[in-house]
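Translate structure to sequence.
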């Protein structure tokens, strides 16, 4: 019997670590494995490596759905290990992100819990232009604080709305709005748009208010999807989006994508790497979008 190939090819063969071609590569990948700000279950800190290896090149092609060959097009920077406290971790993630943005590279991150998005978005102030933040999530993450923690993963959008360089916040897939979070949504109604999952039965909104070429950062909490498609999340909420809707949204974008993260893949409760593979698939498609626009 022939020997079965057992070594995985990380991320469908899109990754490289070769330093001599680093300068020509504008797309970078990094893991932000911190789950200390998760309010309920932990378990997203092992997601970066799971996402790398579950999206195995023995099974998946480096060419995206929309036909962009990403073979060895992405530099894998490895994981930025969490520090002892969230303050230190946040500071570290902000500085690493600032360096990436200042060097003109487009980062694609895998968390970690959703808190990792706060320092990354904060870092975009170095770009000296207003940026637009798109937040895929079941949850509005609009608590002023959660259990006295203002940097909880339940406060991500509350903190991002406070940032002056963020021109708009758009939430897609929401299905857990409550009175306390609605109060904050009302306060920021000039800056915030909320699209509820119950109204998103077909294509996702094209966001006509965002001009062609506008600088956009996308954060995808995997619990935006219906738990049928993404069982490996800490807070599964029935009635969510489909992978098809999100992939089409990415393919049909009209903006300058300056970076993206995928967060809240909980490897402890994922099933057959279904959630990790979907996370990789979304990143792959968005990387292809960036590569195509810069060709
Ligand atoms: Mn969420």
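Result:
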């Amino acid at each position: 019997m022939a020997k079965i190939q057992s070594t995985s090819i990380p991320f469908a063969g899109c990754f490289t670590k070769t330093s001599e071609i680093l300068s020509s590569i504008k797309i970078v990948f990094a893991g932000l494995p911190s789950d200390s700000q998760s309010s309920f279950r932990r378990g997203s800190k092992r997601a970066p490596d799971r996402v790398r290896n579950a999206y195995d090149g023995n099974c998946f092609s480096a060419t995206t759905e929309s036909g962009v060959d990403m073979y060895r097009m992405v530099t894998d920077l490895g994981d930025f290990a969490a520090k002892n406290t969230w303050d230190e971790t946040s500071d570290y993630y902000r500085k690493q992100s600032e360096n990436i943005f200042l060097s003109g590279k487009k980062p694609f991150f895998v968390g970690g819990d959703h808190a990792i998005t706060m320092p990354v978005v904060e870092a975009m102030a170095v770009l000296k232009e207003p940026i637009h933040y798109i937040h895929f999530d079941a949850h509005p993450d609009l608590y002023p604080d959660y259990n006295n923690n203002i940097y909880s993963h339940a406060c991500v959008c509350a903190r991002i709305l406070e940032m002056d360089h963020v021109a708009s916040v758009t939430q897609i897939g929401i299905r857990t709005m409550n009175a306390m979070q609605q109060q904050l949504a009302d306060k920021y109604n000039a800056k915030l748009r909320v699209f509820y999952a119950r109204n998103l039965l077909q294509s996702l909104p094209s966001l006509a208010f965002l001009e062609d070429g506008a600088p956009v950062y996308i954060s995808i909490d995997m619990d935006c999807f219906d738990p049928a498609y993404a069982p490996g999340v800490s807070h599964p909420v029935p009635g969510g989006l489909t992978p098809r809707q999100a992939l089409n949204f990415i393919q049909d974008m009209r903006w300058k994508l300056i970076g993206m993260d995928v967060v809240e893949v909980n490897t402890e409760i994922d099933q057959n790497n279904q959630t990790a593979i979907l996370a990789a698939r979304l990143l792959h498609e968005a990387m292809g979008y960036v590569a195509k626009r810069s060709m």
